[in-house]
Amino acid sequence: MCGIAGILLASDAADIKPLGAIGRMTASLRHRGPDGEGLWIDRETGIALGHRRLAIVDLSAAGHQPMHSASGRYVITFNGEIYNFRDLRCELESAGQTFQGASDTEVMLCAIEHWGLEAALNRFAGMFVFALWDLKTRTLHLARDRMGKKPLYVASIRDALVFASELKAINCFPGFSPDLDLDAAAAMLSTGWVPDHRCIWRSVFKLPPGSVLSVTAANFAEDRSADRLSRCVH
Predict the structure, then answer these.
(1) Which of 5, 146, 171, 222 could serve as 25's disulfide partner, Cβ 3.0–4.6 Å?
(2) pLDDT digits (tens, 9 = 90+) for 179-207
(3) Four-residue CA torsion sign, 1, 112, 215, 205
(4) Banded model confidence at residue 228, pLDDT cuts 50, 70, 90
(5) What share of residues in the chain are helix, strand, coil (percent, to 5)?
(6) Are 131 and 6 in contact (CB under 8 A)?
(7) What CA–CA distance (Å, rounded) separates 232 from 113?
(8) What is the reported pTM?
(9) Which residues are catalytic, by number?
(10) Strands 67-68 and 74-82
(11) Which domains, ranges and CATH numbers included, belong to the chain?
(12) CA quadruple 190, 168, 64, 18: dihedral positive or negative?
């Protein structure tokens, strides 16, 4: 398994220093990816992505993440496995696309560029979560596969939308104050689990299986609440 983390600042955030927390957040996920760490930060637009790598498909540097698409429009940090990536690669090559490495991550990016995000998601067979930053529209897309095998936690902390594979990474973000969700805690005590979209902390929610959260810094600035973010999921 790998680990991902990220930060998106609201468009009216007064300070970009919180982006610096991406290093601590990503480092906290080292146990999920002992083969390497990658960070990508764009201070001008207020976005930071992190990745801890467990190299399985492509062991070379060509599989390093966060990874840029061939055109440079997209940046992705991805955790999981696309089982049919070789078939997708052959289909894309038949359409004239070329590849630099052998990773399923590169195939995902190429598929998104070629078919668009929604159509590409419908073609992916696997277990995954990913964060995709669109430099053209300045939109962050968080996506989770239909079965929900891989987790992704999303939080609203002051001027920042923060996400990660594990809660411990979100806990590394400055200013995060865990506030117990009593309903979620009651569910845990009575049934042994928390409903999939809920989290034990009130300001955090889990991205539901088979869903996408798309948000811009301007959208987030309008309403920073976790409840509002969860309603943007489709």
Answers:
(1) 5
(2) 888 888 888 888 888 876 778 888 899 99
(3) negative
(4) low
(5) 30, 30, 40
(6) yes
(7) 23
(8) 0.93
(9) 2
(10) antiparallel
(11) 3-231 (3.60.20.10)
(12) positive
